[in-house]
Specification:
235 residues; alpha+beta; Aminopeptidase; 8-stranded mixed sheet; 8 strands; protein-N-terminal-alanine acetyltransferase activity
């Protein structure tokens, strides 16, 4: 089942290394929740209230993704891992998720969110999954892409690994937006005791600084070959 509410067509993307399938909660939610619970480090810098059960996450998904034209999720499968039977079996090769959020056809922009399982980090998986999504969002319409003006990468300012990944994938650092959002989840938060005293709010939520990166359309022709070359590296 594709993401019906999303502004654009959410088509399946793949190459020889990975496959990106549109997230279907009936098929993928259980595997997603299982992966998060097995790898709590994935939520160190991410505020994602998945709840205690698959049903909790499906309810959250329906409110924030299933009904939002601004967002969609892709499930990432590793095509290199071979099952014990000697045949590629995608359902056993779940490697994480990618998301497009804050998508605006008027501004022709979107934001990429990345949550790759630890076992697949720093491998061909993340490089190819992110690369496929960049090709789709930034390539012009005649080449099968969306022809967007701008793709953003926003991450917790303390998340050094994410910041390195953004630069490696060709994103340009634009700056740090200080205290730009509340951050009720995750482990790395900024204290707000002084803020509570300043504005009188009780139970003020913790926050974060956000590092902002982007790739824009008028540099894409130069960056594209470098990203494709990264995707073709054997690991």
């Amino acid at each position: 089942m594709s993401q019906r509410a999303f502004h654009y067509e959410q088509k399946r993307l793949e190459n020889d290394f990975v496959a990106l399938e549109p997230f279907d909660p009936a098929i993928h939610a259980t595997r997603f929740v299982k992966d998060i619970k097995a790898n709590p480090s994935l939520l160190t810098y991410v505020s994602l209230p998945i709840g205690d059960t698959t049903e909790d996450f499906i309810e959250f998904y329906g409110r924030h993704f299933g009904s939002s034209p601004e967002a969609c999720i892709y499930v990432v499968f590793d095509k290199i891992v071979i099952s014990k039977k000697g045949e590629s079996d995608l359902k056993d090769n779940y490697a994480g998720t990618l998301a497009l959020t804050s998508t605006s056809p008027v501004n022709a922009c979107t934001e990429i969110g990345v949550m790759i399982s630890p076992a697949f980090q720093r491998t061909h998986v993340a490089t190819n999954a992110i690369g496929l999504l960049l090709l789709y969002t930034l390539d012009p319409l005649p080449a099968g892409g969306l022809g967007l003006r701008r793709v953003e990468w926003k991450t917790h300012a303390e998340n050094a690994a994410s910041r390195r990944a953004a630069l490696r994938m060709g994103f340009e650092f634009e700056g740090v937006a200080r205290w730009n959002r509340v951050f009720p989840g995750g482990e790395v938060v900024l204290p707000v005791e002084a803020l509570e005293e300043r504005n009188g709010t009780k139970g003020e939520l913790p926050g974060r600084h956000t590092a902002i990166y982007s790739i824009v359309w008028d540099e894409w022709d130069e960056k594209r070959p470098k990203i494709v070359a990264l995707m073709n590296l054997k690991r």
